[in-house]
UniProtKB/TrEMBL annotation:
Annotated protein name in UniProt: Nucleoside hydrolase
Molecular function via GO: purine nucleosidase activity
Keyword NAD included in the entry's annotation: no
Inosine/uridine-preferring nucleoside hydrolase domain: residues covered: 35-301
A cellular component term, taken from the record's GO annotations: cytosol
Span of the signal peptide: 1-26
Lineage: Bacteria, Pseudomonadati, Acidobacteriota, Terriglobia, Terriglobales
InterPro entries in the record: Inosine/uridine_hydrolase_dom (IPR001910), IUNH (IPR023186), Ribo_hydro-like (IPR036452)
One GO term of the biological process aspect: purine nucleoside catabolic process
Keyword terms of this UniProt record: Glycosidase, Hydrolase, Signal
Length: 312
């Protein structure tokens, strides 16, 4: 009888050990955010820093990168090289409609140094709409450049565009009692597209200049650039090609807000885009959520923690 009990207890112990081992080797939890990043990477440096944060975050499933405005192919090459050399070469890159006049990209040399044999970039509009149909009400479209691709998506297939879960935009400048707002680059670069997006009715969160003037000082730069990883190596190379001193990480706030919503509290507002490209608030029914003030210390704590992690 005692022997039977011992065998029974031993069997239970084996089962518990097996369950523990299984739990330790179980697949990681699915990412909580499925996103597409629409970017004008290659001009200012903040697009690259935003993309890097997304790549270093397990809670983000980056479905693809689409490029907007000017020389969209060179922008796509830059994004593709970042993805490849950071171990994410399977993430698709698609090109938006090229516009004139194309701007000279500050990081063009980095973009050109890539093997493009067998590479054909799909249309950004076709790619994004296909992903939205595949994942209805699940995709957050993170727009950190001019809104040309989004406007083209609305023109092409407004019904599918409305299947987005949310649009997250870095753009605009909201006037305050003490500060007059000016037209901001991402909005004024394609005013017609911005007007379509802001009146689309799709849920939208906007991070204007008010909350995104996040300057990466010398101490933080050194901390990142000293880190030995493919991603920080690329950020270092792109920084020196960019050729200025202190980056402002406007675009990275869009990604940080997905990871830590409290980093930039939102206020529901009615905002429209006027004929000059200004984002104009009014007292009407809110159509967007806007972050006017960010917690800068929390942002940089999160950013450095993610970028410096050896295993995201």
């Amino acid at each position: 009888m005692h022997r039977i009990r011992r065998i029974h207890c031993f069997a239970i112990l084996l089962c518990l050990l097996a369950q523990t081992a299984q739990s330790q080797t179980a697949a990681p939890a699915p990412a909580s955010h499925q996103i597409i990043i629409d970017t004008d990477i290659g001009d200012d440096i903040d697009d690259a820093f935003a993309l890097a944060l997304a790549l270093q975050s397990r809670d983000i499933n980056l479905l693809g990168v689409t490029t907007a405005t000017g020389d969209t192919k060179t922008r796509a090459q830059l994004a593709l090289r970042m993805l490849r050399e950071s171990g994410h070469g399977s993430i698709p890159v698609a090109t938006g409609r090229a516009t004139r006049p194309p701007t000279t990209l500050t990081q063009e040399d980095f973009a050109k140094d890539i093997d493009l044999r067998g590479v054909r970039f799909p249309s950004a509009v076709d790619f994004a709409l296909a992903q939205i149909r595949k994942h209805p009400h699940q995709i957050e479209l993170v727009a950190i450049g001019p809104l040309t691709n989004l406007g083209d998506m609305i023109d092409r297939d407004p019904a599918t565009f409305h299947l987005l879960k949310r649009i997250v935009i870095m753009g605009g400048d909201i006037p305050t009692e003490t500060e007059k707002a000016l037209p901001e680059w991402n909005i004024k670069n394609d005013i017609a597209a911005a007007q379509k997006v802001f009146t689309s009715g799709v849920p939208m969160t906007v991070f204007p200049l008010n909350s995104t003037r996040l300057r990466l000082d010398a101490e933080k730069r050194k901390t990142i650039f000293r880190q030995a990883s493919p991603l920080t190596y690329m950020l270092t190379a792109l920084y020196y090609q960019w050729g200025q001193e202190t980056p402002t990480l406007f675009d990275a706030m869009t990604i940080a807000s997905l990871l830590l919503p409290d980093v930039c509290p939102i206020t529901p507002m009615q905002v429209s885009v006027d004929e000059k490209g200004s984002t104009v608030p009014s007292s009407g029914t809110p159509n967007v959520d806007v972050c006017l003030t960010a917690h800068e210390d929390q942002f940089f704590q999160l950013y450095l923690q993610r970028i410096l992690a050896k295993h995201p």
